[in-house]
Amino acid sequence: MKMIKEFKEFAMRGNVVDMAVGIIIGGAFGKIVTSVVGDLLMPVIGFFLGGASFVDLKITLKEAVLDPAGQIITPASTLNYGNFIQVTVDFLIIAFAIFLMIKAMNKMKKKEVPAAPAAPPADIALLTEIRDLLKNK
Fold it and tell me: Residues 95, 96, 97, CA angle at the centre, nearest 5°?
């Protein structure tokens, strides 16, 4: 029971919950970026590069082995560098978006007005008053 209680305290801390929310939102954001790259950017880039789809770009290391009927016995061995290019573009867009978000957060932190100094505790205020009275005598 003690371990369950400790785990519950750990899991309900603000940092853990904030991290979980960040991971969930990050996953959803990653899907959006993947769609933007795969469905919007790469087709346009592929169009300007002669109609090639980046996902289809690959180097065949070993051709597929076919039987006389044309059925694949052993699939081809390929190096799929087009998919790597697409994933790299996804990463760069996500990294740039996170950079902009952190930059904006840092800018907002700098604009925060510093809090007014807290009033000194009562004993310090009393000692200061006594000091000032003694100076005036």
Answer: 90
User: Whole-prediction pTM value?
Assistant: 0.51
**Which domains, ranges and CATH numbers included, belong to the chain?**
2-136 (1.10.1200.120)
Cβ–Cβ under 8 Å, residues 32 and 41 = no
Per-residue pLDDT of the chain (137 residues; tens, 9 = 90+): 788 888 777 767 767 777 777 888 888 888 888 888 778 887 887 787 777 677 778 898 898 888 888 888 888 898 988 888 888 887 888 888 878 888 887 888 777 666 667 778 888 888 888 898 888 87
